[in-house]
Design goal:
The strands form four sheets. A six-stranded mixed sheet has the order 9-12-13-6-14-15. Helix content is about 40%, strand content about 20%. It has about 350 residues and is α/β, with parallel strands linked by helices. Helix 3 links the parallel strand 3 and strand 4.
């Protein structure tokens, strides 16, 4: 059972919410040294502004998974250190500690992919509002699947702020994307759009749109990861081979692979492939996904696709239908529990439907 430490005065209602599923200890306004002595055994901490969660505290908190902060911003929390240790920071806009407790519960339950009956209302209430609160995505491969117009591209386009969410928040490294300078936020992200966009020039020049100062060796690594190295090596001039405007002298699969390589040259923390491998055959698609994970185990990858084969090995799959999240889990879990996912998968693999 998870253990949660609270360093704030907590209303009776909040304590009751937590104690249904967790072991809870409360001691308001602890000093840093006191907190370091007790925090090692806890999986989560919920704080107010009086308590600083410094590097020293995080180093002492060997089991810590979540830091919840109620309505006072994230000042006093060492976000870079928490991120490095894989700890998620949940900062609620509401000023009351009940809200922080509920948000922390939702996140911790999603980590175990288990939603106890006692907390169905917490998760379902957010799903009804077409929200995605509580999904832990750090360093994972996340598949997003759904029919045409279900909201897959709209969801991932919120991350680089191509437009803003009308409700709720998108957090990157624990910070609301609206609080980042646009350039700083987008420097963390590599995007492969649905339509591959290439410009007239050489292959190297197209790749350096991702990173202007990239060396040839970096370009080569990106080409190998994107499964483009072989066809580039066969073209006259290699990296200096000419690309026509829009990549018209390349096949659809070649254009997509070069676009993926350009995103990888950026060395992103977040990689978004928005149906960016749809022109690849299944074997190349599988090699690509394996190579991306081997290229950088610390990157968070979003795979948007209508092909179940492209996302079925993701760590976490989100199933969308008409703009709502209707399923979340692994491939095996969704085949058991999500009718929309079952319909998509078995329509593409009818032989498996016969054996289901």
């Amino acid at each position: 059972m998870y253990r949660i430490f609270i360093t704030a005065d907590v209303a009776k209602e909040a304590k009751e919410i937590l104690e249904k599923e967790f072991i809870v200890d409360i001691q308001p306004n602890m000093e840093e040294d006191e907190l370091c002595k007790v925090i090692a055994d806890y999986d989560a901490i919920i704080t107010r502004s009086q308590t600083r969660v410094t590097k020293k505290v995080i180093d002492a908190a060997v089991n810590l998974k979540v830091i919840g902060r109620a309505g006072v911003g994230i000042d006093g929390i060492d976000i870079p250190e928490a991120t490095k240790k894989g700890i998620t920071v949940v900062n609620t806009p509401e000023s009351n500690t009940i809200a922080a407790c509920e948000h922390t519960i939702a996140l911790m339950l999603s980590m175990t992919r288990h939603i106890p009956q006692a907390h169905q209302s917490i998760m379902e209430g957010r799903w009804d509002r077409k929200s995605f609160t509580g999904i832990q995505l750090l360093n994972k491969t996340v598949g997003i699947i759904g029919g045409t117009g279900s909201g897959k591209s709209s969801l991932v386009n919120l991350i680089p702020r191509f437009y803003d969410a009308t409700g709720g928040r998108i957090l990157v490294d624990g910070v609301d994307v609206r609080d980042y300078p646009a350039g700083q936020l987008r420097s963390k992200i590599g995007i492969v759009p649905q339509k591959a966009v290439l410009f007239a020039g050489t292959i190297a020049e197209n790749l350096r749109w991702g990173k202007g100062v990239a060396r040839d060796a970096e370009l080569q690594i990106a080409l190998e990861t994107s499964q483009a190295a072989e066809f580039v090596s066969t073209r006259e001039g290699g990296l200096n081979a000419e690309v026509a405007q829009g990549g018209k002298n390349l096949s659809g699969g070649q254009r997509q692979r070069l676009t993926i390589a350009r995103a990888l040259v950026r060395d992103p923390e977040i990689l978004i492939l928005d149906d960016g491998a749809s022109a690849l055959d299944y074997a190349t698609d599988a090699r690509l996904r394996k190579a991306i994970r081997a290229h950088d185990a610390n990157v968070t990858v979003f795979l948007v696709s209508q092909r179940a084969a492209s996302i079925q090995y993701a760590d976490q799959i989100l199933v969308l239908d008409d703009g709502a999240l209707v399923g979340q889990g692994t491939h095996a879990e969704l085949l058991e529990s999500c009718p929309v996912y079952q319909e998509i998968y078995y329509s593409q693999f009818p032989k498996e439907a016969q054996n289901a």
